[in-house]
Amino acid sequence: EQQNDELRESERMKTELVNIVSHELRTPLASVLGFTALLLKREFDAPTRRHYLGIVDAQARRLAALLEDFLDVQRIEHEGVDLAAQRVDLAGLLDEQAQLYAAQSPKHQVELDVPERPLTVRADPNRLAQVVGNLLSNAIKYSPEGGRVEVRAARHAGGIRVDVRDEGLGIPEEQQSRIFTKFFRGDAGATGITGTGLGLAVSRQIVEAHGGRIGFDSDPGTGTTFWLELPGSNGDSAPNGESTATSKEGG
To answer: Is pLDDT at 92 greater than 60 in this prediction?
Structure first.
């Protein structure tokens, strides 16, 4: 019975993967092919040509990011999270990520509140930026009408806590237990919000590999706050720079 359950779950995840790949790859691939064909067949003035090339570039980058998501989750599941840990000023990392995502969405105001600096942790800066970027990206995507995205970081219980709060759709209560499950996207597909459903699953594994934890609080229709807690730079559970295996992803 256990083997049958595992087989059914495996088949379900394969079906989810095929559905997500076919849906998420179709639009950017169509844009790349369509605008490339147009540029090859017709002559355009320089501004128009540059505009079309910009679309091709943006959609090709989207395809590359989707592929990287799939490869990343596969690597983590088979090899664990490989951390190149060093002393990182989390406040500076948040500055960079907040500026990056604020520039991408004029409808949103990304507000950063870090009352104490520096906030030093021992972490892999690239992996940590991946987690923060995913939380900011989700906060923007799931508040399609715009509004504030608040990022706050402060010392907490011997470590550092980061909160990313949006004023968006919120997460229905019946879906909350599955938020960190691979490929789970809730109602996102039906509402036209893009994504693979892998970002939060990978983020959880990265945070846990750092000896931290991640979670959220959400009120449907009001907004969601995702939070993560990391040990301070002298924390006993800080990573030591070696490859760290994490638990397998689950709901």
So the answer is: yes
Q: Find the distance separating the first CA and the last CA of the chain, reported in whole Å.
A: 20
Write out pLDDT tens, residues 149-166.
Answer: 999 999 988 899 999 999
CB burial of residue 104 (10 Å; 0-12, 13-18, 19+): exposed
- Of all residues in the chain, what percent carry a pLDDT higher than 90? 42
Integer Cα distance of 28 and 49 in angstroms: 18
What pLDDT does residue 250 have?
37
CA distance 234 to 159: 9
Question: What Å distances lie between residue 55 and 100, 141, 154, 221, 230, CA to CA?
Answer: 19, 20, 39, 33, 38
Confidence bin at 241 (pLDDT 50/70/90):
very low
Q: CA dihedral defined by 16, 226, 128, 20, rounded to 10 degrees? A: 10
Q: In what order do the strands lie in the sheet with 159-166?
A: 108-113, 147-156, 159-166, 223-231, 213-219
Task: Say how far apart CA 178 and CA 197 lie, in whole Å.
Answer: 11
- Classified as helix, coil or strand, 147 is strand
Taking residues 179-206, report their average pLDDT.
74
CA torsion sign for 150, 154, 156, 162 is positive
Q: State whether residue 31 is helix, strand or coil.
A: helix
Question: For residues 58 and 39, what is the distance between their CA atoms, to the nearest angstrom?
Answer: 16
pLDDT of residue 230: 94
Q: How far apart are CA 208 and CA 140, in angstroms?
A: 24
Q: Which residue has the tokens 């779950």?
A: 9
What is the C-alpha to C-alpha distance for residues 4 and 158, in angstroms, rounded to an integer?
Answer: 45
Model confidence pTM above 0.70: yes
